[in-house]
Amino acid sequence: MSQIIKNISMFVFAILAMNVLSGCTDDTTDTFGASLLDPSDNVTISSAVFKASSRSVKADAIWARSATGYLGKVRDPETGGYVTGSFMSQFHTLENLSMVEESNISSREDGLIVADSCELRLFFSSFFGDSLATMKLTAYELNRPMKENQHYTSAFDPVAEGYIRDGGIKKNHSYTLVNYSDGSDRTSKNYVKNICVPLNEPYTSKDGVTYNNYGTYILRTFYAHPEYFKNSITMMEHVMPGFYFEYSGGIGSMAYVVSPQLNVYFRTTKDSKETNQLLLFAGTQEVLQTTKITNDDSTIESLINDPTCTYLKTPSGIFTEVTLPIEEILKGHENDTINQVKIALKRINPSSQSEWLLNAPSNVLMVHADSVATFFDNEKIADYKYSFVSAFSNKTNSYTFNNICTLVSRMAALREAGLKSDSEWELKHPNWNRVMIIPVSAEYQTQTSSSGVTTNTLIHLTHDLSLGSTRLAGGESALDLQVIFSKFK
Hints:
This protein has 489 residues and is an alpha+beta fold. The protein has helices at residues 2-6, 12-22, 32-36, 214-224, 232-238, 297-304, 326-330, 372-377, 405-421, 425-428, and strands spanning 43-58, 69-75, 82-89, 108-109, 112-113, 117-129, 135-141, 170-175, 194-198, 203-204, 210-211, 243-249, 253-270, 273-282, 289-295, 310-314, 318-323, 337-348, 363-368, 387-391, 398-401, 434-448, 454-463, 468-472, 479-488. The chain is elongated, with a radius of gyration of 28 Å. 37% of the residues are buried. Mean pLDDT is 89; it is low at 1-37.
């Protein structure tokens, strides 16, 4: 066994074998060795197909920091399950924010500056469902900032955890995603779809002062304490900790909010000319955003118990676990080199024809089952040695991992070392030969060399919090694991 592990990628023929197979991933490999090597060579290559088992696993709570906030409630027409999304956002300010001279502000009451109006706008890039569905949200003011260095999961509830300010803003608001009521010019190329939440009711701050609206509180606080707006941290600590947008009613749409924004409107006068002004604070990647996901547990349980297939369901729904047949691969090949291990996870096409069907997740991560938590907690990316990303292929209708050789060999090495020191090692490490297939959002950096060659480099991975669902072949039906070996004659 150790000989197999030591010999990984030792020879040029092995590298050539992997390159050829990668270019012919759907062809049979039964006669691959004969076609590659000259009969006079001292090396032979063989292939074999082994069977891997798989099952659905409940995702539970996942790390839910994301640049996108999910808001609404929808029903998956294929499975009948409901998904609800709510999100929290902090707001960013420019370093050492500067403003017009206070004396130039003409929006005033009883000689004091005021905001003419104030609003929260939730700009969304896309949505799922019916844009005409009537939905309800509740916007809560936080009483303190959420901690930047803490990992918040998709189960984290700011209301239950005491982050909501007693006596603070609690604004109930009905909306549709088409939002005909805000008066914006939807024909403009600059128009971005949004949910508008007015904040024009009287507002009482923590120190007991009442203002005609929340915007007036922001303006007066700035001129009284400009040091509070030195940066986003000081602003969150002293002025505006953030807002939680909780789904509170309706069904039919889920908005993918990419830019929450607080707008404060006021007027200034200079040289007898009055000008409308806008002070805005946006939720950006520089500050924290989290999403709370609620799935229909009864539906999730029924899907997990379906023996005919496995599932991938997002957000925070179902993963697929695959058990790799390490012992079977090694049996009879103790002195061989493992050059290639390939597995394809085939999608089972949906039987429903509904126009609201959820798409299959775009990308999936394969990682050792015991390493899932640390992988995301430490913000790792796939190294293509022990963790791998595969994009869904419409051509093959599958997620294909073309070579997980190093992962298989590592599992074999850990087992060998473990059994040498403890005969019960496998019982104490039940996940030793299992991997988890997890939907992820993958961010790539594209670069073009001076010779015109373009490369895409994976730079960031997070759990996929968008709506997605698919069935995979597996469960009662074993999965094919294609393996290529080489050895000296």
